[in-house]
Amino acid sequence: MAVLPEWLGGGIAEKLLHAAEAELIQEGCSRITLDTTEPLQRAIRFYEKHGYRRSGKVTDFFGMALHEYVKDVER
Q1: Percent composition of the chain: helix, strand, coil (DSSP 3-state, to 5)
Q2: Do β-strands 64-72 and 31-37 pair in parallel, antiparallel, or remain unpaired?
Q3: Helices (DSSP H) in the chain: which residue ranges?
Q4: Looking at the domain assignment, is residue 34 inside a domain?
Q5: 3-state DSSP assignment of residue 50
Q6: pLDDT (0 to 100) of residue 15
Q7: Is 56 left (phi over 0), alpha (psi -120 to 50) or beta?
Q8: Distance of CA 37 to the CA centre of its chain
Q9: Tell me, what's the pLDDT at 74?
Q10: Considering only CA atoms, which of 32, 33, 27, 25 is closest in space to residue 74?
Q11: Do 47 and 69 form a contact (C-beta atoms < 8 A)?
């Protein structure tokens, strides 16, 4: 998920995340996961601010460590 630089801080990413979470919850999901890489520190802070925590699962993404983040949600 990304927004144009001129839209950073305007709430677009938060709206996108909430919409995706709402759809997943409606479909019966109780746990949401996403992946990101270390260079994307702004994204990591954003996800952590919205309740996501590192699961400890790390895979390779074209030579970069890809960290899984997880959030348990109520249906």
Answers
A1: 35, 35, 30
A2: antiparallel
A3: 12-26, 41-49
A4: yes
A5: coil
A6: 93
A7: left
A8: 11
A9: 85
A10: 25
A11: yes
Query: Tokens 């925590």 correspond to what residue?
Result: 53
Quick check: 1 and 36 in contact, CB under 8 A?
Answer: no
Region 48-64: mean pLDDT is: 96
Distance CA 32, CA 13 (A): 16
Which tokens is 31 given? 């746990």
Q: Is 67 contained in some domain?
A: yes
In a domain, 47, yes or no: yes
- Is residue 16, in this structure, part of any structural domain at all? no
pLDDT tens-digit map of 5-55: 888 888 998 999 999 999 999 999 999 999 999 999 999 999 999 999 999
Range of the domain at 68: 30-75
**C-alpha–C-alpha distance, residues 26 and 29, integer Å:** 7
